[in-house]
């Protein structure tokens, strides 16, 4: 195995907003992973990506790329409905795989991919990068050490700009709940995964899913599109630990206030926040109070940072942390990343949220 893991990236179009904001700069700065090959759906865009990103190889067919002996691992950063096929092909080719979250359109597809990864004996990572946030790793350690005493309750919110009711037809695929990319799966999925990472699993929940903007107007075609994907998610839950939690995540037309998690214990309070969401944007701010009503900032220990001091901050940072543990898993077999199994668990939690909205309170264990 070479010093750097040789990665082939499916979905490496230069027009891809998320890849350009996160994966490209993270891989360019990574001491552990080399972006060796890029793959897009067209020969011209693949070659443009190869030149711009400085890779050795370019492909316009992911089936050819995943079978190349020149790469050790595959990254899949396509739209959610397109995750399944290249991820499956990479696993069948015996490659280690990093697939963005959501892993698949639904739980059945995610379960199939996780089972295939187990049988192939390869390392997997899913893009739940808040679990590699230094701030959240520290919060988890503090809670487990009893920093707040018995935790009584969590109050969590995530209000992000989700776009107004007008948008181009190229974005209308997001209106269909069957495509698996919406406020429930993405914005809420990341927030609820963050809560479960630091607080543990749910015992019971009651939820409410709603479509607050039921129609979108396509600005380029004039068509009206019916929206079936939820854009507002509210959950009240009891955790296995005995603490209770209130979670509200929504797509806002304007000026979303970002992410905030308040943790109330018998001995104190912690607040974690940033202006976007727990897995992306600027580093999460951590404040705490013990024996006082005044919150003060806590410094995050360096031991949770896996990257060089000059690594780019913002969206690339937690993605870079994931690539670091992915490379370590490939080299040693010790996988500290959220894997496809983690993804399956979260897909099932989202199924519970949907079921609870339809039926009322549900047991989760």
Structure description:
The chain is of the alpha/beta class and 365 residues long. The protein contains nine helices and 18 strands. The protein has helices at residues 17-29, 43-53, 62-66, 84-92, 107-120, 134-144, 183-199, 315-332, 340-359, and strands spanning 5-10, 33-39, 57-59, 73-76, 96-99, 124-126, 151-161, 166-167, 202-210, 215-218, 224-226, 232-239, 244-252, 258-265, 268-274, 285-290, 296-297, 362-363. The protein has a nine-stranded mixed β-sheet. A hairpin with a 5-residue loop joins strand 10 (215-218) and strand 11 (224-226). The chain is globular, with a radius of gyration of 20 Å. The model has no long low-confidence stretch (mean pLDDT 96).
Total strand segments: 18
Query: Can you give the helix content as a percent range?
Result: 25-40%
Strand content: 25-35%
Please summarize the sheet with the most strands.
9 strands, mixed
